[in-house]
Amino acid sequence: MNIREAIPGDFDRIWPIFREIASAGDTYAYPTDISKAQASAVWMDAPRATYVVEEGGEILGTYYLKTNQQGPGEHVCNCGYMVSAKARGRGLATAMCEHSQKAARDLGYEAMQFNFVAASNRGAVRLWERLGFDIVGRLPRAFRHPSEGLVDALVMYKWLA
Fold first, then answer.
1. Could you read off the pLDDT of 45-89 as tens digits, one per residue?
2. How far is residue 15's CA from residue 11's CA, in Å, rounded to a whole number?
3. Is residue 12 within a helix (H) or strand (E), and if so which, with residue range?
4. For the whole model, what pTM was predicted?
5. How far apart are alpha carbons 94 and 101 in whole angstroms?
6. Which residues pair with 144 in a beta bridge?
7. CATH for 2-159, among 3.30.1490.110, 3.40.50.1010, 3.40.630.30, 3.40.50.410?
8. H or E stretch including 112?
9. What is the largest CA-CA distance in the chain?
10. Cα–Cα distance measured from residue 130 to residue 123, given in angstroms and rounded to the nearest whole number
11. Where are the alpha helices (DSSP H) in 34-117?
């Protein structure tokens, strides 16, 4: 398993993962019918850096890293992670989160914040807490889960410096 910075041509191989996760509507606040062009803009163009997890030439996971807020908040970054359903349970999310923290420090960030973690995404919440993130905010009923209805969205934060 290799984690490397994404190149523009990688999005064609990221798109099936992105489409799978966005269309489920249970973890990200993206439209379930987001177009490939819109997804590419969000995942490849807007972030400061995008990375992929590759094994045997196949992309199994991806994450982006971007500045969370400008000006006085530019020392805090934000990340989003996606793992293909067929690669879940193999530690890719852990590896990407650990990699992203090092990449963030290398880029000069001092903290990492996850702005909108669906509380129903229990596996992710447990993982982020295990990796040192604290729940610092709760937005009641802010996420419309397709089967659980309105659930809380969490703000999670970790000081990196």
1. 999 999 999 999 999 999 999 999 999 999 999 999 999 999 999
2. 6
3. helix 11-24
4. 0.96
5. 11
6. 150
7. 3.40.630.30
8. strand 111-118
9. 42
10. 11
11. 36-40, 92-106
